[in-house]
Structures are given as C-alpha cells and as structure tokens.
Design brief:
alpha/beta, five-stranded parallel β-sheet, 7 helices, 38% helix
C-alpha cells in the first residue's frame, strides 16, 4: 500500500537494512510548485467558491484519523457530514432515511463489510446514492462493473476530494443547488 501511494505521488521509496538488524525507509517526494501549494492553502481555508455547500455526505472509514481528515475537508467545503466507522453502521444510516445523503465517501479496506460490500448494500437501499471510493490501494481501472462512481486516492488533496464529491453528487442535489 505504501509503495502504491508513494508511486502515485511521483515519489520514490528507498529501503536500507540488514536481515535481523532492522530496516529504515525513506520516502523521496518531488518538490511542490509554489502555485500548487498556494492553491491547496486557499482550498483548505475555504477561500475558493464552495460548490459543495449544503451537500449531505456520509463518510465511512474505520481509521479515525483518516475519517476525521475526510470529514474536516468536506465540512470546510460547506458539506453536512455524518461519520461512520464501519460498513454496518453506514448501511443502517442509509436504511434509516433513504435519499438523505447526496453522496457517500467509503474506504475500501475495512473489517467486517469492506467498501465494495458496503456500497452494494447501500445501493440496495438507495440505488441513486453515488458512492465515492477513497482508497490508497485501489485504482479506478480495478473497479469496472462496481457500485463506485469515482475513486479518490489516499493521500488526497483537499480540492480533489471536494471536486469529486461535487461531480458525483446525487442528481437531485445538482438541480437543487
């Protein structure tokens, strides 16, 4: 997973070690362009126009730090966010009020119900609910025929997550705002 994330970011991973003595890992990242950094800072502060304002988003991730980061980015973008730490509780949220959410952002690797099964079961309750996969291990090409509308690769840029949710929101949310 780490190697996939590092490669996706255009970086390299160097491993030095001796069997039985341990190892050290060094991730070498390319230098960010100043314009990219400025755009990210503006987006994270909510300075950009908020095309996601008012969207209701269900965030499902078993890792509390990742879930917190996803929710924080979406809230800064103006979304109303409900967080779940597993697929079972996410399906229950959708079942309690079909049509409540404009989009769901779901982790792929979770204990119990994984992301694919969570998306399948949510779709059985609310077939119009767009589900965005947020994963560090799966690429869009691997999802042919799946229930996922899009993929956001971890680690993600805040604006990339907001743009993906905006593009893949429920159709009624598009006409409402």
């Amino acid at each position: 997973a780490v190697q996939g994330i590092v490669r996706r970011l255009g970086a390299a991973l160097r491993v030095d070690g001796t069997p039985g003595e341990g190892a050290s890992f060094c991730a070498l990242f390319p230098v960010a362009q100043e314009s990219d950094v400025a755009a990210e800072v503006a987006a994270s502060r909510g300075d950009a126009a908020a095309p996601t304002a008012g969207l209701r988003v269900l965030v499902v991730d078993d890792d509390p730090l990742v879930r917190l980061q996803i929710a924080r980015v979406l809230r800064r973008g103006g979304c109303d966010v409900v967080e779940c730490d597993d697929g079972v509780s996410a399906v229950a949220e959708v079942r309690a009020a079909p049509g409540r959410f404009d989009c769901a952002v779901v982790d792929f690797l979770m204990p119990g119900l994984d992301g694919a099964e969570t998306a399948r079961q949510m779709g059985g309750v609310d077939g119009a609910l767009p589900v965005v996969l947020c994963s560090g291990t799966v690429d869009a090409a691997d999802l042919a025929g799946s229930r996922f509308a899009a993929v956001v690769s971890k680690p993600f840029r805040p604006q990339a997550l907001l743009d993906t949710v905006r593009r893949h929101r429920r159709a009624e949310a598009v006409s409402a705002g």
